[in-house]
Amino acid sequence: MSLTGSVWLVIVAALIAANLPFVNQRWLVMGPVAATGKPLVGRLAELILLYFLVGGLALLLERRAGQIAPQGWEFYAITGTMFLTLAFPGFVYRYLLRRHG
Prior knowledge:
single chain; mainly alpha; UCP019883; transmembrane; DUF2818 family protein; membrane; transmembrane helix
């Protein structure tokens, strides 16, 4: 896979993973359905777990491409806020859209 393809794969995976906790009622995407609906804290915990899974995918692809660049705390702060930004459509869908009926 080319470097550009790897970058796009990580971006698309992050976009999908960031919205998964908000668009379904299952625990950890494939687990049992939450009987009364998942609380916001549960969704945020899933979001953090999925952030680390996408980070692992990115690390794997970077390792395949060559030498892994060292990252400081700034890298994780920026990627964490980018992941939260990508989760915004799912959050709006779950909590801010007014539903009729």
